[in-house]
Amino acid sequence: MTNNERSICIIANGEKPELSVLMKALSGVGMVIAADGGSDHCRKLGIFPDVIIGDLDSTSAGISEIFPNSEIIHLEDQETSDIEKAIEYALTFKPVRLNIISAMGKRTDHMLANILVFYYLNRSGKLKDVDIHIYDNSGEMRFLSPGSHIICNKKGRTVSFFSFGTISYLTIQGFRYNLEKHESKGYFSGLSNVYESDECVIEFSGSRLICYECYEAEGEMDE
After folding, report:
1. pLDDT digit of tens for each residue in the chain (223 aa)?
2. C-alpha gyration radius of the chain
3. CA dihedral for 73, 75, 76, 79, sign (positive or negative)
4. Dihedral, CA atoms, 117, 73, 8, 41, nearest 10 degrees?
5. Which domains, and CATH codes, for the chain?
């Protein structure tokens, strides 16, 4: 990867991405990594990953013949999931952005494990210099660090906020449901809010805040 292509896309083994989602995740990336069974999505979608990594228990037979130009990294370690192996490998390239697709859907236990991995890696600081975006077929998940955030040009979009830890002084302005210095012990769940301003503000301290934005503006899915 060149210095101006330090964005990496990781394709996992969850729900198959729709074409529009795939295009979002692949836009501007300099490397594609398939996490084990994610290589099967690549095969079906005509994507040629640069790297296939994992314990390889979910890859198709003859994977090296299917992708002769891909680097195949077999890691038998059962203490980490395939998505975690892919992220740790990606971080060795010091990316500025990680786009992750197909990490949701299919088995709920796998989806929950992936969310916990994303949350832990953010909380641990391993991703503090990386902009991480997780795409599924309905929306996009990001992790906001404590502090102040200004979000622009999302008016009409549905958004939800979550945290597995304590959130303090949570202020959200420019939304349908605003908060002022809200305190939440243990966890926070703010489901189905709506951006109602061209410039919205989120401020808080404490734990990381998960932000999940739906692609469609409110009402578009019913049209």
Report:
1. 444 458 999 999 989 999 999 999 999 999 999 998 899 999 999 999 999 998 877 776 788 889 999 999 988 877 788 899 999 999 999 999 999 999 988 788 888 888 888 888 877 777 778 889 999 999 999 999 899 999 998 999 999 999 988 999 999 999 999 999 999 988 899 999 999 999 999 999 998 899 999 997 654 444 3
2. 18
3. negative
4. -80
5. 3-137 (3.40.50.10240), 143-222 (3.40.50.10240)
- Residue 118, classed as helix, strand or coil, is helix
Distance CA 122, CA 164 (A): 12
CB 22 within 8 A of CB 44: no
CB 15 within 8 A of CB 136: yes
3-state secondary structure of 188: strand
Nearest one of 27, 24, 49 to 36, comparing CA atoms? 49
| 70 three-class SS | coil
Instruction: Check: pTM over 0.85? Answer yes or no.
Output: yes
**Longest CA span, the chain:** 58
Task: Retrieve residue 76's tokens.
Answer: 């038998």
The owner of tokens 């290589």 is 39
- The 8-class DSSP code of residue 220 comes to G
How many Cα atoms sit within 13 Å of 49 on the Cβ side? 30
